[in-house]
Design a protein that fits this description.
This is Mitochondrial glycoprotein. The protein contains eight helices and six strands. By secondary structure, it is an alpha+beta fold. It has a six-stranded antiparallel beta sheet. It is elongated and about 60 Å long.
Length: 309
Amino acid sequence: MLSLRALSRALPKTLFNKSPVRCLSSVSRTAFYRPVWQPATRTTYPAFSTSCARREPAGESDQELSAKIEQEYQLEVENNDSSKLTPLNDYLSDSGFEITDVPGTHEVTLTKTFGNEQIKIEFSISDINNLDEEFDQSEEDDAFDDEAEFDSGKNTINQAGVRGGKVDVLPEDSIAPADRDAGEAPEDYPTTPAFPIDLRIIITKPGDQALEIHAVAADGTIEPQTINYAPKASALLAKSGKDAQEVQAQYYGPPVSNLDAELQLLLERYLEDRGINTELANFLPDYVEYKEQKEYVSWLQSLKKFIDI
C-alpha cells in the first residue's frame, strides 16, 4: 500500500479542491424580486440579546475530511496482507534477535546476546521517506538523460534521420526479445527503488566498554560507515551532561571506506559473525514497511477521532 499512497500523494491537489460557489444573501434576493410599488421597510432589532450563547459550528469541510479519512482507513484495512508478518517472525526466531517496538513511536530496537557481548541495533521507520526522494531523483535523472539524448541530435532507436538514410540500431536491438535475460524488467514497469536504513549498532563487553558502529542497510547489504570505541558504554546513551560531551568530543576514526581493503573485509566478517548480515539487511526494509503501515492506520484513527469531536 506504500506505492499506492505514494501515487495518490503525487496527484495535483487541485483535483480535490471544490470550485467556489457564490450565492446571494436573503437581503439581496429580496431586493431583486420586490415590486416597485412596494415600499421598503426597515427592520428594527433590540439593542442586546438575552438568548444563551451557542457553540460555534464546526468548519464546513470537517465532515468531508472525516469521510475521506474513513475511506482511506477502510482502504488500508481491506488491502492489509497479514501473511507478510510470517516471514518477519520466522527471521526473529532463527536469528536470535529480540525486537522492541513501542506502538506510536518511529524507533525500533533489536537486541541479542553473542558470547559475552550484548548487541543492540537501533533504526527508525522514518527512513522510509527516503524512498520518495530517491524515486523523484531517479525520475529527474531519466528526464535529464532523455533531454540530453534529444539535444545530441542522435536519432531514436530504429529511426532514420532522412528518407532512405542509415538507421540507428542500438546494441540491445540486435538481440531478440526471447533471447534476453528472463530477469530483465521491462522499461514500462520500473522497479521500486530501495530505501537506505541508517543503523546504530552498539556492541558492549564486560567492563562497560563498547563499539559504536554507524552503518547503512540497503540492497541486501550492510555497509559500516564509522566505528567508534567507547570506554564507557553507558555514556553512549547520555543525552546531555558531561558524558554526552565526552562522547561528542571523541575521535570516531576515519570513514570505513578509507581503510585498507583487507581490513574492511575483516570488519564485515566480524559483523556477519554476529548476525549483522544479508539476512538482516533483507529483514529491515520489510519490517520498516510493516511498522510504518501499522502506525499509519493508527494515525488515521487518531486523526478522525479528533476531527469528529
